[in-house]
Amino acid sequence: MNKIIFSFIVIFVLITIIPLVDAQLNFGVQANQKEVEMKLSNSEIVKVKHVITSHNTPTSLTLFEGTISNLLVTNEEGEEKQFGLVDDGIGNQSLSIFPSNQDTIVEYDLEDVNSFYDNMWTLRTEYDKKFAIIFSEEINLIFINNNVIELKNKDGISINGGGKVNLQYYANIEKTIKKVQWEENKFDIIITSDAKIKNFNFEQPSKSISFEIDSKNKFVTVTMPEIFLGGPYATFLDDEKIEYSKFVDNEKNVSITVKPKATGQITIIGTTVIPEFSMFIPLIMGFIIILTVPAMRKFSLR
Length: 302
What we know:
The chain is mainly beta. Helix content is 15%, strand content 49%. It contains 3 helices and 26 strands. Strand 18 and strand 19 (208-213) form a beta hairpin. It is elongated, with a radius of gyration of 26 Å. The protein starts with a helix and ends with a strand.
């Protein structure tokens, strides 16, 4: 009889505890986030910050996936706030935050989402809300899903609408500057790559530039005035046509990036070279916008 009573008590306890645990994983409404940002540098540690607007009910905040350390929750005055950390056992973590009449700031470190190999950092992350990625001052050239972005005087980018991000950037990178003259016009052609560049050549009749690289599977970015070769472009590794990505900055410079799978000669051909093609520049600009905007709409400088 005692065994029957004991078994009944155990079953009753299990029935009552399991729903409570499940409720804890979904504690409160989703937080209204004013700001979400990740800070990257030449380090495996990624700094993360969430800013949550004031709220009069308990809220739940989903954290980035990864190994989390140095978790800190404060109000606007820097006073620490109580919170509950919830883990679903399969890598998803969230915070339960009590009501507050001030904004709540959540900060923590991610230790296993930014990896380093062959002089290049690679960040792989995912979040379902819009978030920003901020870079330290020494980082100027980044690659998102193999698309090149030059930060210039911007401190980072926004991932509009959230989603998966595969982002890469060099720890240290050299630039090769080649000066090219077309009649009375002089242009600086900047080649940025971890590969060694040699035998640079500009051919006026074929409206092309070429050079050799000694490494494979490395990004090679050529930055030049947009009016120099015109566009659209064709890129080749030896005699084989290869894909490229393009970025145009506010100073009317275009960056063409390729990632050759073998060593050899890289050739970039434009449809025109100044001055003959100047009358078609507005048409080219419109064509470039049509090609570029849909691909890069998800990412924006900030």
